[in-house]
Amino acid sequence: MAVHEIHIVKADKSRAMDYRRIFDGSKLFRHYGENVHNWMDSALANDEVWIAEDRNGEAVGFMWMQIESVYANMPYLALLGVRTDYRSHGVGQMLIKYFIESYESKGYDRGFIAVNDFNPLARRLYEDMGFHKFMQMPESLDPSHNLYLLMRKTPKHNSNV
Ligand SMILES: CC(C)(COP(=O)(O)OP(=O)(O)OC[C@H]1O[C@@H](n2cnc3c(N)ncnc32)[C@H](O)[C@@H]1OP(=O)(O)O)[C@@H](O)C(=O)NCCC(=O)NCCS
Predict the structure, then answer these.
(1) 47 closest CA partner among 33, 63, 34
(2) Which helix (H) or strand (E) segment is 147 a member of?
(3) Whose CA is nearest to atom 14 of ligand 1?
């Protein structure tokens, strides 16, 4: 798989069941279970989902992007997943880059992502993309875990705000 064969499209609500497979076998699904499907359904209902598709139109990545989120009405990447067989090829980076470009093009100069303490690889990826710890809180479902809210500020010379 080459990343140039991947394209990002707005989600199609009628493919909700197909999209669920993206999170199969993930730590996130093991931890949150059916909640993940419920979040996906809400995201689709709100028209806030973007999908990475391969050249055959198969859904391989899912991104819930809220531009005016509960976090001070600022952009927030609420859910991200790449299908197991497509991981570590840059699809996650591609989706995050799309998130950044989307909010910057709307004039926002910062964006947020949350990551659990049990997901250090996802956190490293977000840090590589410029998102750094902003605050830490106990996770609502299981307070023995921490959730980190990461923020990225657009460097001044890139900002059009
Ligand atoms: C977290 C997740 C979305 C990352 O997606 P991904 O497509 O694997 O991410 P990328 O391929 O862009 O980057 C992952 C790693 O591959 C590396 N990589 C990127 N392009 C690459 C390429 N062409 N070849 C080899 N490695 C590559 C990246 O540098 C990164 O390395 P790192 O280990 O230093 O971070 C994915 O692992 C996932 O869906 N996990 C399950 C759900 C989940 O936990 N979501 C996050 C919730 S917060």
Answers:
(1) 63
(2) strand 146-153
(3) 88
Write out residues with Cβ below 6 Å of ligand 1. Answer: 3, 26-28, 80-82, 87-93, 115, 119, 121-122, 124-125, 128
Q: Which domain holds residue 18?
A: 3-158
User: Mean pLDDT over residues 145-152, rounded?
Assistant: 96
Q: Which two tokens stand for residue 77?
A: 């990447």
Q: Is the pTM of this model over 0.85?
A: yes
Rounded average pLDDT over 113-127: 96
Q: Which residues pair with 113 in a beta bridge?
A: 77, 150
The percent of residues in the chain predicted with pLDDT above 70, rounded, is: 98
Helices (H), 33-119: 34-45, 91-105
Number of domains in the chain: 1
Residue 109, CB-side half-sphere exposure with 13 Å CA sphere: 8
Which of the listed residues 87, 94, 145 should we mutate to test ligand 1's pocket, taking the one with most ligand atoms within 8 A of CB? Answer: 87
Tokens 């980076």 sit on residue = 93
Instruction: Specify the CATH number for the domain of residue 116.
Output: 3.40.630.30
